[in-house]
Design brief:
Oligomer: single chain
Radius of gyration: 21 Å
CATH topology of the domain at 1-116: Rossmann fold
Structural class: alpha/beta
Shape: globular
Number of strands: 11
Strand content: 15-25%
Helix content: 25-40%
Order of helices and strands: EHEEEHEHEHEEHEHEHEH
CATH class of the domain at 1-116: Alpha Beta
């Protein structure tokens, strides 16, 4: 199988919470021999004071504050390269946080974006997506969102992997070895887009995912179908908060390779069930 993770993007803030996020993401990077990009996003309001009646004026000591943060990024870079043996690139960008993160995820062709969110209960009257939910929905790659305050993957108990309209092969292989080492439970969940749109292949995707996990040995897996229709990202985040899971691993946009592999797997299963017996494995080289 091709290398699953080459580039990991981590939007960071300069606090102990995000230091913990970087440490956990570095473990994934070391496992996959991937490069990490540390992205610090500065809002325009942190650079300029705005007023309806006067011209925007620069915030005092902004230059020195930015220099301190750039120095902090360089410190984190040296620490990660020395302790984890991985390549790290720091960058600071000005703009809207979610737009800048999405731009970098697309432009650098990131394989994984690691985010940090707080486990909060969504209000019934809140209709707007949070910045985290926006990135989960829009990013073309895998997104790992950390919810617990645990400082190490060794402390994890639960991770949620949603199944949409394709088999989550990439996400399973991204997290599989660490799930075996640290023995955390994998929750496979699915949810309809609306009341009249329950994907007919959902059960097939569940069973095929379980088949992928079976050879890995003693891994706890729980499957659940969320009957309530609605925004899928909202439902996945709510479920993660409800069971107090440590992380949510999503990929809402399927790429062409994964679609082809899922289709080939369906053909393989179909031919295996024919009275003519199993076809040679060389017929399906793209999946193996």
């Amino acid at each position: 199988m091709d290398k699953n993770i080459n580039t990991i993007l981590i939007p960071v803030q300069f606090d102990a919470e995000h230091l913990s996020v970087v440490r956990q993401a570095a473990l994934l990077a070391k496992e996959h021999k991937a490069m990490i990009h540390l992205l610090a996003v500065k809002s325009i309001s942190s650079i300029y004071n705005f007023s309806y009646f006067t011209q925007a004026t620069p915030v005092k000591n902004t230059f020195f504050h930015n220099q301190e943060q750039l120095a902090m990024l360089e410190t984190w870079k040296r620490w990660l390269e020395q302790d984890y043996g991985i390549k790290v690139t720091p960058v600071m960008e000005l703009g809207n946080w979610k737009d800048v993160v999405l731009k970098y995820a697309i432009s650098m062709n990131a394989d994984l974006v690691v985010l940090k969110d707080k486990p909060v209960q969504r209000k019934w009257f809140t209709f707007r997506k949070s910045p985290i939910e926006y990135l989960i929905a829009k990013c073309p790659c895998q997104v790992l969102t950390l919810y617990s305050n645990k400082t190490s993957m060794a402390e994890w108990k639960d991770i949620v992997i949603p199944i949409t309209d394709f088999i989550p092969e990439q996400r399973v292989h991204t997290i599989l070895k660490l799930a075996k080492v640290y023995k955390f439970k994998i929750h496979l969940i699915a949810s309809p887009i609306n009341a009249n749109n329950s994907h007919p292949a959902t059960f097939h995707f569940f069973t095929e995912t379980l088949k992928m996990l079976k050879p890995s040995g003693n891994i706890q897996v729980q499957c659940e179908y969320l009957d309530e229709p609605g925004n899928q990202v909202h439902r996945f985040v709510e479920y993660t908060n409800r069971i107090c899971a440590d992380a949510l691993m999503t990929k809402m946009k399927d790429n062409r390779k994964e679609k082809v592999n899922s289709f080939i797997k369906k053909l393989e299963n179909f031919f295996n069930e024919t009275p003519y017996g199993k076809y040679p494995d060389t017929i399906f080289p793209a999946y193996h």
